[in-house]
């Protein structure tokens, strides 16, 4: 049996080279994770909520610009959704995210309509975790506020028409309607179903408001 010693040597060299490249790659990934972890661990001292929230409360105009509501409304919503946002048991309790932190971050994200990565970064929350928080807070808001939207029946429309006529001198109007394109990633095998005329994929958030600026109907 003939063994090519040069081939064996080349194979060993290739294995050593591959091992060195792999080790270096693992080392860089570990360093990147450590740097990211250090950044996120400073959330309670250096995150946007810790730094700015109390100052925003003292500045009603900027608070409204950031959250599209006043402080009283924020506190009211917080009291309603807190039972649905009870913190989970954690191995590091000091690293937990409180209900008011979750609500503030998500409402700020809703107010700007995009920039999920940016909002997560300034609040020092990983993008993946922030995605879960958005889901959690959204479900809490639906659970807490759903009862405040009455069934859209004939009585609601008649009362709305009377209010529009009395308050705004606008007869035969049952609601003020508007919509917004919410950008999404194209779902698998959706083709052009969610592709809008603005050139990106979206779903439409549609809402009807009465004469007192209260939502009477929503549809996604």
Nutshell version of this structure?
This protein has 220 residues and is mainly alpha-helical. It is built from 9 helices and 3 strands, in the order H-H-H-H-H-H-H-H-H-E-E-E.
Counted by DSSP, the helix tally is: 9
Average pLDDT number? 83
Biggest β-sheet: strands ordered side by side in the sheet: 1-2-3
CATH class of the largest domain: Mainly Alpha
What is the CATH T-level topology of the largest domain? Cyclin A, domain 1
Helical coverage, percent range: 55-70%
Strand tally: 3
Listing every helix as H and every strand as E from the N terminus to the C terminus, the arrangement reads HHHHHHHHHEEE
Distance linking N and C termini: 73 Å
Structural class: mainly alpha
The percent range for strand residues is 5-15%
**Poorly predicted residue ranges:** none
User: Which word captures the global form?
Assistant: elongated
Largest β-sheet summary: 3 strands, antiparallel
How would you characterize the overall build of this protein?
This protein is mainly α and 220 residues long. The protein folds into 2 domains: 47-88 and 96-146, Orthogonal Bundle (Cyclin A, domain 1); 151-219, no CATH class. Helix content is 57%, strand content 10%. It has helices at 5-41, 43-46, 48-57, 60-67, 71-81, 99-112, 116-122, 127-145, 154-168, and strands spanning 176-183, 202-209, 215-219. It has a 3-stranded antiparallel β-sheet with strand order 1-2-3, with no helix packed on it. A hairpin with a 5-residue loop joins strand 2 (202-209) and strand 3 (215-219). The mean pLDDT is 83. This is Nuclease HARBI1. InterPro entries: HARBI1-like. It comes from Hermetia illucens (Black soldier fly).
């Amino acid at each position: 049996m003939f063994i090519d010693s040069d081939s064996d040597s080349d194979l060993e060299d290739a294995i050593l080279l591959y091992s060195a490249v792999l080790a270096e790659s693992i080392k860089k990934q570990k360093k990147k994770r450590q740097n990211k972890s250090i950044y996120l661990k400073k959330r309670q001292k250096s995150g946007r909520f810790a730094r700015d929230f109390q100052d925003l409360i003292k500045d009603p105009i900027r608070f409204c610009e950031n959250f599209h509501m006043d402080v009283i409304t924020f506190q009211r919503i917080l009291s309603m959704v807190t039972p649905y946002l009870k913190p989970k048991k954690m191995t590091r309790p000091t690293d937990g995210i409180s209900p008011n932190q979750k609500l503030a971050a998500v409402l700020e994200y809703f107010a700007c309509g995009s920039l999920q990565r940016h909002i997560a970064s300034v609040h020092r929350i990983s993008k993946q975790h922030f995605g879960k928080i958005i889901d959690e807070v959204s479900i809490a808001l639906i659970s807490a506020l759903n009862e405040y939207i009455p069934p859209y029946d004939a009585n609601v429309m008649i009362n709305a028409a009377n209010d529009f006529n009395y308050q705004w001198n606008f007869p035969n109007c049952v609601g003020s309607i508007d919509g917004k394109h919410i950008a999404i990633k194209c779902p698998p095998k959706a083709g052009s179903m969610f592709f809008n005329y603005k050139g990106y994929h979206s779903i439409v958030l549609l809402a009807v408001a009465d004469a007192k600026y209260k939502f009477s109907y929503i549809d996604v």
